[in-house]
Amino acid sequence: MVWHSGKTDVTKGQLFRQVPRLLFGSGVISRLGQLLPPIGSGRLFIIDSVLEEQNIAKRLPIGHSDVVEWFPAGEHEPSTAQVDELRDRIVGRSTYLPTGVVGVGGGSTMDVAKAVSVMLTNEGSSSQYQGWDLLRRPGVFKVGVPTLAGSGAEASRTSVLTGPTKKFGINSDFSMFDAVVLDSSLISGVPRDQRLYSGMDCFIHCVESLQGTMINELARSYATQGLDLCTKVFLEGGSDEELMTASFMGGASIVNSEVGVCHALSYGLSMELGFRHGFANCVVFNVLDDYYGEWVNRFRTILRAHDICIPKGVCSGLDSDAMNRMVAMTMKMERPLINALGEDWQDQFTPGEILSLYESM
Ligand code: NAD
Ligand code: ZN
Fold first, then answer.
1. Residue 265: closest CA among 195, 314, 206
2. Which numbered atom of ligand 1 lies nearest the CA of 73?
């Protein structure tokens, strides 16, 4: 029996993790109240501030004692400092914890909602919990409502945050949503490029999951169907409902397997160049022919069909200290690299190889 960090038995009898309650369909946001605990001391709604002008609040069951926090997801990817600050503000407001936390937005806002939920019950800074299975206590009941499809954060056990020294997930069963609402009407206004970049995150999740060593048959079925749907959406004009389904399936697949080489490299680009996740993944995947072969060609076909041109030479302005930090960041992504390349990944994925991949982007 082989055990990896994260305590996942990759050979047999693996616990399959999935969100226990799910509302699905166009317009189901109107039924969010059915999933929420009673108001009690009040619930906390964390909402992407871009949705304020779309009057999203009118579609949510926000009561008098509920609290709304608008999260500026458009500024940059979420940080541990933002999570800590938000948690401190909520704790400072009342002696009672909120009865529920609702995250409404893309992967960034949903990840903040997951993190705040667990940081309301676990002491210290969220940066202390970036890693695998470090949380001690369950969080407050939490619900995810994606308004952008692709990240799969609605289905995963990860809250990805940029900390003082690394971009890394809080990976725990306690950081999974207790319920999600998949309402395709919420993604209809997403700008075209953002839809594509986040959608390619889903495409890459499915590929990395399928090509990895930690896959099991159930996760493979999710990834296969997610990949088919994602490809259909971007090459044959599939629907928003199909894209939302693909995102969920990709997320459900990676939570039960792992990501791979692309994600291990892309976090470095986000740290040093501030690239958003979906875009960073596209920059990286574009040079991974040796690792993901035909899938990279399929990805390029999708980009061409959408007139998206991925820039080259993105690292040319970085000094050697920055390049070395990116290499070090990549080497910390042990689990994805074991998934992609096996236990002896360091034999082939050397600092020199990582550096030359960054230089080729
Ligand atoms: P995002 O949440 O970072 O949002 C990208 C942009 O889209 C932002 O400007 C946001 O304001 C805007 N946006 C969101 N909804 C919109 C809507 N309905 N209409 C118009 N604009 C909208 O993007 P994302 O791709 O969903 O998520 C990426 C983030 O998720 C990164 O921080 C990444 O690290 C994280 N992530 C997490 C997981 C996980 O499993 N937890 C997986 C992949 C990525
Ligand atoms: Zn991703």
1. 314
2. 11
Three-state secondary-structure class, residue 359: helix
Q: What is the pLDDT of residues 105-156, one digit of tens each?
A: 999 999 999 999 999 999 999 999 999 999 999 999 999 999 999 999 999 9
Query: What local confidence, expressed as pLDDT, does residue 15 receive?
Result: 84
| For residue 9, pLDDT beyond 50 | no
Contact 102, 145 (CB under 8 A): yes
Comparing C-alpha atoms, which of 80, 88, 77, 319 is closest to residue 69?
Answer: 88
72: left (phi over 0), alpha (psi -120 to 50) or beta: beta
Fold of 192-360: Dehydroquinate synthase-like, alpha domain (1.20.1090)
Q: Rg of the chain over CA atoms, in angstroms?
A: 19
Residues of the chain with CATH 3.40.50.1970: 28-182
Q: Ligand 1: residues whose CB is within 6 Å?
A: 48, 50, 73-74, 77-78, 105-109, 111, 147-148, 150-153, 156, 158-160, 186-187, 189-190, 194, 198, 201, 251, 276-278
| Beta-sheet pairing, 179-182 with 142-146 | parallel
Amino acid 4: pLDDT = 38
Instruction: Pick the ligand that lies closest to the CA of residue 77.
Output: 1
Residues ≥6 apart with Cβ < 8 Å to 60? 29, 32, 45, 47, 102, 104
The residue type at 141: F
- Range list for CATH 1.20.1090.10 in the chain: 192-360
Say what percent of the chain tops pLDDT 70: 96
Cα–Cα dist 258/332, whole Å: 14
**Class level of CATH domain 28-182:** alpha beta
Q: Which residues surround ligand 2, an ion (CB under 5 A)?
A: 201
Contact (Cβ atoms closer than 8 angstroms) between residue 177 and residue 144: yes
Q: Is residue 23 within 8 Å of 34, Cβ to Cβ?
A: yes
* Nearest of 201, 167, 358 to residue 282 by alpha carbon: 201
